[in-house]
Amino acid sequence: xxxxxxxxxxxxxxxxxxxxxxxxxxxxxxxxxxxxxxxxxxxxxxxxxxxxxxxxxxxxxxxxxxxxxxxxxxxxxxxxxxxxxxxxxxxxxxxxxxxxxxxxxxxxxxxxxxxxxxxxxxxxxxxxxxxxxxxxxxxxxxxxxxxxxxxxxxxxxxxxxxxxxxxxxxxxxxxxxxxxxxxxxxxxxxxxxxxxxxxxxxxxxxxxxxxxxxxxxxxxxxxxxxxxxxxxxxxxxxxxxxxxxxxxxxxxxxxxxxxxxxxxxxxxxxxxxxxxxxxxxxxxxxxxxxxxxxxxxxxxxxxxxxxxxxxxxxxxxxxxxxxxxxxxxxxxxxxxxxx
Length: 339
Description:
- By secondary structure, this protein is an alpha/beta fold.
- It contains 14 helices and 9 strands.
- Helix 5 crosses helix 14.
């Protein structure tokens, strides 16, 4: 199914490439204007279009986008009735994709280097890649958010995931979505909108099955800001767990070791209830908690990071929520709402 990239576009002549930049968002009034102005400076061609797909913001985000669109060329606001990111990207490609060659997906709640879009295009053209994915540097501000960032940047929180742990410069199975050839995106049917989480990994599975190639670049990255409260972090990772289970069920695939290990956390926590009758039932829970907190102490001492113990708590929330979400989806317990 795969077809070659445009061979007549040279590495340095990015102005010949037309790019659709899509920003799914919901209540991002604080960040949307500086983000749009940064993206405007990154366009390689005057015909590049920036589409903000808004899921029903109530904080003034839409009004800000409309105001900025009066000043900057080719900036459009689009209503995303389904609210989730997968639907936002699909809708933007359906409405505008025929006019463009590449799609760049931008997270409104993140930050990007000044040459982010141009670097992605250069990598795509020079390597004839169908998809470019990036690494993520997680950064926090408040105490809990900083601790969560430390957890997500560590193996305790990310399990050694390449797009979380850094790296780059290699062909991969999956990574944080950044750029995609619109031909490839449409050829496999775009995102599966039944996924509110893990839709990127599910799409990558279909891309690889169809012979398309995914390159993780080491030349640029994105900055991600994690959830700032324990409850929000729990809901996020509950959704991630559900999404991963749904992905595995759909494609009859087997989880990787780094994904399989956290699956035991929810059963271990639930099983500890039996400690009321059998004291030894609490041993697995104690081992997991001590291991996590011990890693946090090592971060504090070995990495000189005083947030290490609190980062361990964030990691434990992530482990339990991910595991619980996975098992809930696997046994058919439905979510009351989409996270």
